[in-house]
Amino acid sequence: MNIETIVGIGQQALEVTIVLAAPVMGSTLVIGLVVSMFQAATSINEQTLSFIPKLLSIAVVLALGGKWMLNTISDFTLRLWGSIPTLIQ
User: Fold this and answer.
1) How far is residue 26's CA from residue 20's CA, in Å, rounded to a whole number?
2) Cβ(53)–Cβ(30) under 8 Å?
């Protein structure tokens, strides 16, 4: 097994991680920004106010995209396990 193969596997793993984390992180970022603008406009200085909307957005994203996320990580894992015989040669 050469270094290019190892780097390729690592690159694929990072790409899958970014693709799976982007919807959750993006929705949380947008909700946090909206809540922060609301807090700035109303002068509410409660630090825990943004926690519940962020938690709800994560739950919604996981409920809507969970099947796709599971299929993506399963496909990557199956491809990785399937390529083991060619990697050990």
Assistant:
1) 11
2) no
